[in-house]
Amino acid sequence: MKNFGIFFNPHYLDKGAIFKVLKVLHEEKDLNFFKFPEQSNILPEFIHTIKEKDQNKLDCLLSFGGDGTFLRTVKFSLKTKAPILGINLGKLGFLSESSVSELEKSIDDLIQNNYKVQKRLLLNASIKRDKEIIFSANALNDAVLYKGEIPKLIDIRFYANRRFVLETRCDGIIISTPTGSTAYSLSAGGPIISPVMDAFIVTPLNPHILSVRPMVFDADDKLNYKITETDGSSYLQLDGVNSHSLKPDDEVIVTSASQKVNFIKLTNKTFFQILRKKLKMGKK
């Protein structure tokens, strides 16, 4: 590897120390670092702004930040076909494989091909209104149908492969990928699933029926959700961002995306070791 794309959390304060390390690596190891146009003003000049026609030349994307920054890096990975290595600058950094203190060693491992690439499932969420698709986008962690600011529950009907599953009054529903099973879905009581699996986790948010529980579906399934009662302030959220407002009788369709995201895995740590370390699983 020689050509690295850089995506940075713009709100991180101590950028200078990291820039110094990258500049030394650039000069001593003859590495090329590139930034995307939207971050041209916050990264130094030795990190060149990459032209769109050259984006397919990137070998790897380095995402400096927490999980939110990693999620924003995904769109560049899909566009450039380059795998992502997360460098954690946040508190948890569950999606990150490395840290600032390990930066030089991690890049050496990349140069020497001491890494593996994991493919992770993406979901696609579309909104159908009046028989037309008015919105469609992908998410790495989850799609959430949420009641928004209204102080009451909403009614949601749920179908899998055109077969009725259930109807419930709730604050919303999370449809998560295995990668997202350790994020919002986990907080709402959903199961943890190995991130290399292909599956959807459907986790209701505060359902008003005790028997409505989280469920797991095959990633080949087509999941449909109809909001039958809302005052128009409900939202479809994708990876923590309010992506589109929802109206009564809107249908949200969730399927597997046509692409997967490539994660770089540097260490021999298992997924379960990471759970024990970062989420304190099994600790007393």
Question: How do the SSEs run, as a string of H and E?
Answer: EHEEEHEEHEEEEEEHEEEEEEH
CATH class of the largest domain: Mainly Beta
* CATH fold-level name of the largest domain: Tumour Suppressor Smad4
Q: How many domains is the backbone divided into? A: 2
Question: Which percent band covers the strand fraction?
Answer: 35-45%
What share of the residues lie within helices?
Answer: 10-25%
Number of strands: 18
Q: Can you name the CATH architecture of the largest domain? A: Sandwich
Rough outline: elongated
Give the N-terminus to C-terminus distance in angstroms.
Answer: 42 Å
Structural class based on helices, strands and sheet pairing: alpha/beta
Major sheet attributes: 6 strands, parallel
Strand neighbour order, sheet with most strands: 3-2-1-4-5-6
Mean pLDDT: 92
**CATH H-level superfamily of the largest domain:** Probable inorganic polyphosphate/atp-NAD kinase, domain 2
Detail the poorly predicted runs: none
**C-alpha Rg, in Å?**
20 Å
The helix tally amounts to: 5
